[in-house]
Amino acid sequence: MIRIALRIMIAGGLLGLLMGCSPLKVLDAFTPGGTFTRTADLNYGSDPRNLLDVYTPVDAPADAPVVVFFYGGSWNTGSRTDYSFVGEALASRGIVAVLADYRLYPQVHYQGFLQDSARAVGWTREHIHKYGGDPNRLYVMGHSAGGYNAAMLALDSNWLAAVGMTPSMLSGWIGLAGPYDFLPVENPEVKPVFFFPDSPSDSQPINHVSAASPPALLIAAKDDNVVNPQRNTGGMAKRLREHGVSVRELYYARPGHATLVAAFSRPMRGLAPVLDEVVNFVHAQEQGRVIAEGQ
User: Fold this and answer.
1) What is the DSSP string of the chain?
2) Strands 51-57 and 36-43: what pairing?
3) CB atoms inside a 10 Å sphere around CB 22
4) What is the pLDDT along the chain (295 residues), one digit of tens a residue?
5) Torsions phi, psi of 168, nearest 5?
6) Which among 57, 70, 101 is positioned nearest to 279, based on CA atoms?
7) Which residues on adjacent β-strands are paired with residue 249?
8) For residues 152 and 158, what is the distance between their CA atoms, to the nearest angstrom?
9) Is the dihedral of CA 53, 58, 61, 62 positive or negative?
10) Residues forming beta bridges with residue 172, ordered by sequence position
11) How many alpha carbons lie under 13 Å from residue 182 in its C-beta half-sphere?
């Protein structure tokens, strides 16, 4: 009972910090180091922000599934080093995690960060076997703006084509509170990123869904006041189903927009079982792959 009470107190205190200005370092401070080996500062491109870190599970069997994670921040801010709790969470469950930085506004507008995201995935497919991952068991995942990046790579074939890949090479994609249908842009920080009021319609992930789209796991906070969950997560799930694409759609009442991703961290996992759902999704796709190969 004492441990449970302490956990509740810690989570409650962290929740308060998460509502402040810079909570992610707090979560990283609670991230244990015994579940993974991190290979940091790997270059996937020529720009100083073209860096990624790989989290390899300790004692994991060779050829583990791989998740490339993109963080949010309205394409204006963010750093992979603030999300080690995501890398640890995935590695602790036997998944090789790749956390990538990408160029941000004002250095680039739409399309620059998508070009970088595609390059990071291309690098992963080419090199991840050196870090215990299977390039043929590859997933993309992102939170908020990073969820958009993941969605565009999975749905619009133009981005991965630039690195010699197709969306069919992805085993699936995972969106956490992602914006998939947000024109006209309302967020003042995002307006210049997408050339408001001349934002191109092909910048919207929902416009690229096809019957060939990879399976998806879409998770959102029920009362998200940053990215409308009904329009974005709900609308994307509906469009995927209309095209016969497998999708799992989940909404949670306890976390908000920011704390949805924080629920990957050990102190905050009581908010929502996002880690369990991601792992279950990966395992489900893996099982389907094994069955298909055995036919």
Assistant:
1) -HHHHHHHHHHHHHHHHHTSS--HHHHHHT--STTEEEEEEEESSSSTT-EEEEEEETTPPSSEEEEEEE--STTT---GGGGHHHHHHHHTTT-EEEEE----TTT--TTHHHHHHHHHHHHHHHHGGGGTEEEEEEEEEEETHHHHHHHHHHH-HHHHHTTT--GGG-SEEEEES--SS-PSP--TTTTTTTTTTS--GGG-GGGG--TTPPPEEEEEETT-SSS-TIIIIIHHHHHHHHTT--EEEEEESS--HHHHHHTTSGGGGGG--HHHHHHHHHHHHHHHHHHHHH-
2) antiparallel
3) 9
4) 434 333 443 444 444 434 333 466 667 666 666 888 999 999 999 999 999 999 999 987 789 999 999 999 999 999 999 999 999 999 999 999 999 999 999 999 999 999 999 999 999 999 999 999 999 999 999 999 999 999 999 999 999 999 999 999 999 999 999 999 999 999 999 999 999 999 999 999 999 999 999 999 999 999 999 999 999 999 999 999 999 999 999 999 999 999 999 999 999 999 999 999 999 999 999 876 645 555 4
5) -65, -15
6) 57
7) 218
8) 9
9) positive
10) 139
11) 25
Q: Are 27 and 85 spatial neighbours (Cβ–Cβ below 8 Å)?
A: yes
| Residue 104 and residue 76 in contact, taking contact as beta carbons nearer than 8 Å | yes
| C-beta of residue 67 within 8 angstroms of C-beta of residue 139 | yes
Residue indicated by tokens 């799992």: 248
pTM: 0.90
The answer to whether the beta carbons of residues 266 and 85 sit under 8 Å apart is: yes
The C-alpha angle 149, 183, 103, rounded to 5 degrees, equals: 30
Task: Name the phi and psi angles at 148, rounded to 5.
Answer: -60, -45
